[in-house]
Amino acid sequence: MAAKARIASSSRSIQIAACEARAPPESEISMLKSIIYRMPSGEPERKRLTIPEQKQPGVPERKRFSMKDVLLWADGEPPKPGPRRIGIHTSTAGGVEMAAERAYRLGANTFQIFSSSPRQWKPYPLAQAQCDALRGLREKYGIGPMAIHSSYLVNLASATAEFHRKSVIAFRGELQRALALSAEFLVLHPGSFRGRSREEGLELVARSIAEAAEGLELEKSNLRVLIENTAGAEFSLGGSFDQVGQLLEYLRPVCPVGACIDTCHTHVSGYDIVSEAGWHETVQKLEETIGLRNVMAWHCNDAKDPRGSRRDRHEHVGKGTIGLDAFRRLLNDPRTEHAAFIAETPIDEPGDDLQNIATLKSLVDVVTAPPKRKRA
Ligand SMILES: [Zn+2]
Ligand SMILES: [Zn+2]
Question: How remote is the CA of residue 301 from the centroid of ligand 1, in Å?
Answer without folding.
Answer: 8
